[in-house]
Design brief:
464 residues; alpha+beta; Immunoglobulin-like; five-stranded antiparallel sheet; elongated
């Protein structure tokens, strides 16, 4: 019989909540300003009016996207694809230059997590008080502080969801319908979904989204090279680490500049130790840089033990920010942005398609007149209705039997206009001939569209 004790080990350790220590410094200030600006834009833009309507509104039922003075229709969907391509290339460019700078300063997960942490500090205090509060038994004070935090979190998440819906339903109308309990089921669903997602991701999951759920953390290394700016610890200067009195020079006790105070770990929002090297959990927020610089100032050591630098610079080489990869990304972005602006500002607000009548190639009318019938599909992408005038050219003596003036075409509407075109059989030889339909608005000459069509004349043998 085997009496040996069996030792069991857990394969999964419970995730400990990270309470990041407060830090002050240049990068903390930059991150705070970025959060204020980005959240301010998110919550303010739906309330901004433009030409008596909401400045930014994605009106899905009406199939209109209003972006200040520009109105985009379903036919302009390729502009959205263009924007997504530019956004992806911009992310590649920023990553090649400065690593995960986007994650540390502009990612929605980072921005809303910072906001939720601020609300937590208001109700529960600084990081040491929050740690003690979590470990303390439940008392009236703990219940009050936790309840106040949840009240602020839920209210902030709910307002985030309401604002999100305000980009798709005019926000003034949305607030009025909410007050009267008249919201539609889809509006309620997406409002609750976005509120719960914000509350869960920014309030509870926090750094776990960056560490386990975000795909960017996994493929970022494919865009890094030795000259990419990263937050890094100067091991040559810092090791061996150890505590010492402030008045004792590090060289006198055989130590490096790192005092092993672990403040760089305490301020990290993902809880990593940057001294272990570059890790995928690092979001490049540079809190550890601010914390380490403060310690270096107190010890009268030079700053930069932890800094934004490159791997090549740490090895003693030169820092090269401008390099072929960055130049190529930059040129592509410049071309894409320039092309997008020109395409958007110069886009046609009226389009026309020409469809020939499929029932008959042509019709013979009295007096030697040959008639072809077409259907013109006219799209008005302007915000105003327009009266249209149709013209045709391409063969001498060509004329319209249809009234060339058509009544107002509503904004965003697709008009279907049947057009009869007449030509005398002797005006051209038999067979197919190119003609051009032109449509312009009577109230604005700048709105014009043209499209080629094919006019069929019978051959001389057929005419006999």
């Amino acid at each position: 019989m085997n009496n040996k004790a069996v030792k069991t080990e857990a394969l999964y350790a419970k995730q400990e909540k990270i309470h990041a220590r407060e830090v002050e410094g240049l990068f903390d200030s930059l991150r705070r300003y970025a959060v204020i600006v980005l959240l301010g834009l998110y919550y303010f833009l739906p309330w901004l009016t433009w030409n008596d309507r909401q400045g930014i509104l994605f009106d899905l039922p009406a199939r209109k996207f209003y972006i200040f003075g520009v109105t985009l229709w379903p036919q302009d969907f390729f502009y959205l694809s263009w924007l997504l391509i530019m956004a992806a290339l911009t992310l590649f460019f920023v990553t090649a230059v400065a690593g995960r700078l986007w994650c540390g300063y502009a990612c929605p997960q980072t921005v809303w997590t910072e906001a939720f942490v601020w609300l937590e500090r208001i109700t529960e205090g600084n990081f040491s008080r929050r740690i003690k509060l979590d470990k303390a038994p439940w008392t009236a004070e703990k219940v009050l502080r936790k309840t106040a935090k949840q009240f602020l979190w839920i209210g902030f998440a709910a307002w985030t969801g309401i604002t999100f819906i305000g980009y798709f339903t005019p926000i003034n109308e949305l607030i009025g319908r909410m007050a009267g309990f008249e919201l539609g089921p889809w509006e309620v669903f997406w409002m609750l979904f976005y509120s719960v997602a914000t509350y869960g991701n920014a309030g509870f999951l926090r750094e776990q989204v960056c560490m386990y759920m975000c795909p960017y953390a996994r493929f970022q290394s494919a865009m890094f090279d030795g000259d990419t700016l990263v937050v890094a610890y100067d091991e040559k200067r810092g090791e061996p680490r150890g505590g010492r009195k402030r008045s004792v020079p590090a060289a006198d006790v055989g130590l490096g500049d790192c005092t092993d105070c672990n403040i760089c770990v305490q301020v990290c929002p993902t809880g990593i130790d940057i001294r272990k090297g570059l890790q995928y959990e690092c979001i490049a927020c540079a809190s550890c840089v601010d914390a380490c610089d403060a310690v270096m100032d107190r010890m009268n050591y030079p700053r930069g033990l932890i800094s934004y630098t490159t791997e090549n610079a740490l090895r003693g080489g030169t820092m090269q920010i401008v390099r072929p990869r960055v130049v190529i990304y930059g040129l592509l972005l410049m071309l894409l942005f320039t092309g997008f602006i020109f395409a958007l500002t110069g886009r046609d607000l009226m389009n026309v398609d020409v469809i020939r009548d499929r029932n008959a190639l042509y019709r013979e009318l009295p007096g030697g007149i040959i008639q072809n019938v077409y259907t013109l599909k006219v799209i008005n992408k302007d915000d105003r209705a327009h009266d249209l005038k149709i013209e045709v050219a391409g063969i001498p003596g060509i004329s319209l039997e249809t009234d060339p003036v058509q009544p107002g075409l509503e904004p965003g509407a697709i008009g279907s206009i049947t057009v009869r075109v007449n030509i005398h059989r002797d005006a051209a030889s038999g067979g197919g001939h190119d003609i051009v339909f032109s449509i312009r608005t009577l109230d604005d000459d700048s709105f014009e569209a043209s499209r080629k069509g094919r006019f069929i004349l019978p051959s001389n043998q057929q005419a006999k």
